């Protein structure tokens, strides 16, 4: 059994402490449980979806974890919704294992991509040039959480391109902090990056070309739910199915959350007020 599967099963036991589809202990409201990874777009969409579901009369419980335990928990019905899953490449290994135990109920962004990202002042444009400039990068690629699909893709890229680099695991916030620190000093840095993400609005960045296609092409960011969720909560599933963003819209939502200074729900409420026409088009 793969190491991440063993870890995922253990963590799923913790995440599944509360049963799915429950009613609140203090109210008659039904509770919907959302699971998400600590990635900027997932954090933003989870807060937005929480606000909209609360407006529809639901209690919402949100749990942040790594990708692997989230897949296990949704597949086993211990969590209701996995807010984002990237297909066909980034989460391919997880979906291959658990895809028949979850249902995809919405695609909220259809122009996503992953790869290695560098500041535009870095004087290379392709993964094939990394070894020639490895000293400038200190032979390090700055990654995120080790269970993320982009980390597996980057390990494959290291093999495919014969890169003399070490992939350093961290987290989404740690990766962006390292990126900011390098940019402030004008240093070279390569990070595991993805779009949509607020960093592209804040910094001048570029994806390195990937002529071998290790990172794939355009991906879809979708919402997966436990089997039966759409039957149990048809109006919530309808909302999720209609929720869609273009690059500007998801960028503005992420930027609002990033600048929230600790009051994310207030930022989400303001974003909803500023985007009423879009939000109303999603409502069942």
Write up what this structure looks like:
- The protein has 284 residues and is of the alpha/beta class.
- The protein folds into two domains: 171 residues, D-Maltodextrin-Binding Protein, domain 2 (3-Layer(aba) Sandwich), CATH 3.40.190; 95 residues, Glycine betaine-binding periplasmic protein, domain 2 (D-Maltodextrin-Binding Protein, domain 2, 3-Layer(aba) Sandwich).
- Helix content is 42%, strand content 21%.
- The protein contains twelve helices and nine strands.
- Strands 1, 2, 3, 4, 7, 8 and 9 form a seven-stranded mixed β-sheet that branches. Strands 5-6 form a two-stranded parallel ribbon.
- Strand 5, helix 5 and strand 6 form a beta-alpha-beta unit.
- The longest helix is centred in the N-terminal third of the chain and has 16 residues.
- The chain starts with a helix and ends with a helix.
- The N terminus is likely disordered.
What is the CATH topology classification name of the largest domain?
Answer: D-Maltodextrin-Binding Protein, domain 2
Radius of gyration: 19 Å
Can you give the helix content as a percent range?
Answer: 40-55%
Give the terminus-to-terminus CA distance: 42 Å
Number of domains: 2
Structural class: alpha/beta
Shape field: globular
CATH class of the largest domain: Alpha Beta
Mean pLDDT: 89
Percent range for β-strand residues? 15-25%
The topology string of helices and strands comes to HEHEHEHEEHEHEHEEHHHHH
- Note the quaternary state here: single chain
* Biggest sheet descriptor: 7 strands, mixed
Q: What is the CATH superfamily of the largest domain?
A: Periplasmic binding protein-like II
Specify the CATH architecture of the largest domain.
3-Layer(aba) Sandwich
**Helical region count?**
12
What's the total number of strands? Answer: 9
Uncertain residue ranges: 1-27
